[in-house]
TrEMBL record:
<dbReference type="Pfam" id="PF04073">
    <property type="entry name" value="tRNA_edit"/>
</dbReference>
<dbReference type="InterPro" id="IPR036754">
    <property type="entry name" value="YbaK/aa-tRNA-synt-asso_dom_sf"/>
</dbReference>
<feature type="domain" description="YbaK/aminoacyl-tRNA synthetase-associated">
    <location>
        <begin position="50"/>
        <end position="170"/>
    </location>
</feature>
<protein>
    <submittedName>
        <fullName>YbaK/EbsC family protein</fullName>
    </submittedName>
</protein>
<dbReference type="InterPro" id="IPR007214">
    <property type="entry name" value="YbaK/aa-tRNA-synth-assoc-dom"/>
</dbReference>
Length: 183
C-alpha cells in the first residue's frame, strides 16, 4: 500500500506489522475507536535519518507541514507532579510556560527529563507517541494537528513511524484539543 503522505517504500496497517511492538503496538492492536484500526498505518524508517532536515529530505518535503512531535512534560503544584503528553506540529514548539501550565493548573511546568519520559512511557526517546501512553495521563493536542487529514507521528521506537488521521489522535483517551498549544 502507498503511504498517503511522504515518500515511503510502503505503508501497512500497524496492527498487522509483526516486528512492531511496545505500548503503541499494543494500543493499536486493541483499537476499537474511530477511525478504524486499518487507517493507523506503519511505515519503516531508518533511525540514522531521524534528524528532521535529513528525514524530510529523504522521505518527502510534504512531511514538513504534516509531521507532529509528542513530548512529555512535568507539571508541579503543591509538591504534586503530573506527567502529561503534548502533541504539536514539528514546525512549532510546545507552549510549556503558557498553555500547558494553565491547562494543567500547575505552578511550574517543564519538559520531563529524558530518563523520566522513557521510563514512564515505556517508549524510546525520539519515538514517543501519543498512542499507548500510560492510563490517566493528560494528552494535550494542538488543534492544527487534530485538523490534519493525515499526520506522521512516532511509533514508540526510533525505527518506524505511524501515519494516522488527526482525528484519531483527538479521540485518544484523555485527549484535549487546544488552540495555541504549539507556538
Amino acid at each position: 500500500m502507498r503511504a498517503p503522505i511522504g515518500n515511503f517504500d510502503s505503508a501497512e496497517p500497524a496492527a498487522g506489522v509483526g516486528h512492531f511492538d511496545g505500548p503503541a503496538a499494543e494500543a493499536i492492536r486493541a483499537w476499537t475507536g474511530t477511525p478504524p484500526a486499518d487507517q493507523l498505518l506503519y511505515v519503516d524508517t531508518d533511525p540514522e535519518k531521524a534528524d528532521t532536515a535529513v528525514f524530510v529530505e529523504h522521505y518527502g518535503e510534504d512531511l514538513v507541514g504534516t509531521s507532529a512531535n509528542c513530548v512529555v512534560v512535568a507539571a508541579k503544584r503543591g509538591g504534586e507532579r503530573t506527567l502529561a503528553a503534548c502533541v504539536v506540529l514539528s514546525t512549532t514548539r510546545v507552549d510549556v510556560n503558557g498553555t500547558v501550565r494553565r491547562r494543567l493548573d500547575a505552578r511550574k511546568a517543564s519538559f520531563a527529563p529524558m530518563g523520566t519520559a522513557v521510563e514512564e512511557t515505556g517508549m524510546e526517546y525520539g519515538g514517543i507517541t501519543p498512542i499507548g501512553l500510560p492510563a490517566g495521563w493528560p494528552l494535550l493536542i494542538d488543534a492544527s494537528v487534530a485538523a490534519l487529514e493525515w499526520t506522521l507521528i512516532g511509533s514508540g521506537r526510533r525505527r518506524g513511524k505511524l501515519i494516522v488521521p488527526g482525528k484519531a489522535l483527538a479521540a485518544l483517551p484523555g485527549a484535549v484539543v487546544l488552540e495555541g498549544l504549539g507556538v
